């Protein structure tokens, strides 16, 4: 997130791309770990249901944040919305 924030303030596309690659990898690792935990805690017969529920809640949380930040970006600008994102995830 530091790279993405830096890229927004310096208007650097290469830094932004590097930041999104690192952030995407981090989200992927966290989601994979969470899926592993749900698999370990579920019974084999209920694994598909639990995995579907896991992804439903994960993607709901991601979509809600993105939509709210998009609205904030339209109202207040990119810098304000990016600072809000940074403060929210501390």
Task: Please describe what this structure looks like.
With 90 residues, the chain is an all-alpha fold. The chain contains four helices and no strands. It has helices at 2-10, 13-41, 47-76, 78-88. It is elongated, with a radius of gyration of 16 Å.
Provide a brief overview of the structure.
With 90 residues, the chain is mainly alpha-helical.
Describe this protein with a few key phrases.
4 helices, 90 residues, mainly alpha, elongated, 0% strand
What portion of residues belong to β-strands? under 5%
Shape: elongated
Structural class: mainly alpha
Gap from first CA to last CA: 11 Å
The major pleated sheet works out as:
none
Q: Helical element count?
A: 4
Based on DSSP secondary structure assignment, what is the total number of beta strands? 0
Average pLDDT works out at 86
> What is the H/E string?
HHHH
Low-confidence stretches: none
Rg value: 16 Å
Helix content: over 70%
